[in-house]
Design a protein that fits this description.
Layout lengths: L16 H15 L2 E3 L5 E14 L2 E9 L7 H8 L3 E11 L2 E8 L4 E6 L8 H30 L4 H13 L3 H5 L6
Antiparallel strand pairs: 1-2, 2-3, 2-4, 4-5, 5-6
Length: 184
């Protein structure tokens, strides 16, 4: 789960921000998946098909969940509850009819596997411009999510937000809520 982190580590680094952002974004995707640009354009976030967690000893305590909806699984919440950090996730981001999928790595905010909407246009140049526009849209939308996180993270409102994220992490996952009660 998200631990209380100092403003910076001993060397001035803020390596904890990536995992915090990714965990916060997962929480937001479940409780309020809509982000709004100033012009009213809405962006929706969904965690999709891949979550990777690491414990204190990195690979020795690694959990990778794939396929289906791992964010709703008992295993994902168990990884959080055991103190593992979310370090990578496959994310679906949607704006209007356009959907983009990508993997975000927390340690360096690296993006891989970006799948943009199929570019439309009569000519090759039109399709190239549509592809470049989709890339710009992707960057704007991801920046919106990060800016929303930082507006909370860099203020005193973070303590209350952190408590909400922790309560969510400790609560039963959607899969756990669907399990029939076991009788003794």
């Amino acid at each position: 789960m998200i631990a209380r982190a100092p403003a910076a580590d001993d060397l001035g680094g803020v390596d904890y921000l990536g995992p915090e952002f990714l965990t916060w974004l997962w929480w937001r995707a479940e409780v309020d998946p809509c982000f709004r640009h100033d012009d009213g354009t809405e962006v929706f976030i969904h965690f999709d098909e891949h979550l990777e967690f690491r414990g204190e000893r990195a690979a020795a305590r690694r959990t990778v969940l794939r396929a289906g909806m791992p964010g709703a699984s008992m295993e994902a919440r168990a990884a959080l509850r055991s103190g593992k950090s979310l370090v990578a996730a496959r994310i679906l981001m949607a704006r209007d009819e356009d959907e983009m999928r990508f993997t975000l790595r927390a340690e360096n905010m690296g993006i891989s596997g970006l799948k943009l909407p199929a570019p439309e246009g009569e000519t090759r140049e039109d399709r190239l411009l549509a592809c470049l526009d989709a890339q710009d849209q992707f960057v704007e939308d991801l920046d919106l999510c990060l800016a929303t996180f930082l507006r909370v993270r860099c203020t005193e409102a973070w303590d209350a937000e952190l408590e909400r994220v922790r309560a969510w992490g400790e609560s039963p996952s959607p899969d756990e809520r669907m399990q029939p009660a076991l009788s003794s």
